[in-house]
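Problem: given the chain below (85 residues), write out its structure.
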Amino acid sequence: MIHTAEWDDQSRLRGKRVAVIGTGAASVQVVPTIAPDAEETVVFQRSPPWVPMRKNPEYSKVTKAILAVCPWLMTVSCMLFLAGY
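Solution.
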C-alpha cells in the first residue's frame, strides 16, 4: 500500500492490478497517470468528485515561437481564453 504523499516515481505498475481509495485531488491526478500502465485500475469512492471540463487549446508552431520569445503573451492568451475570446 502506498500513500500518494509518499509516492515513489520508480514504482512499477505495468501489468499489475491497482486499487485507488478515494477520489480527492491526488486521485484525480494519479489515476489517469497510472491507469495506462496497470493491467486493471479500480477506484473506490464514497461520493463522486465534481471536475469541470478542461479546455486545452492547441497552439500553432508560429504561436509557440512567438510565446517563446515573449512569454508574457502567454498570460494574456490565458486570460483571453478563460474570458471566452
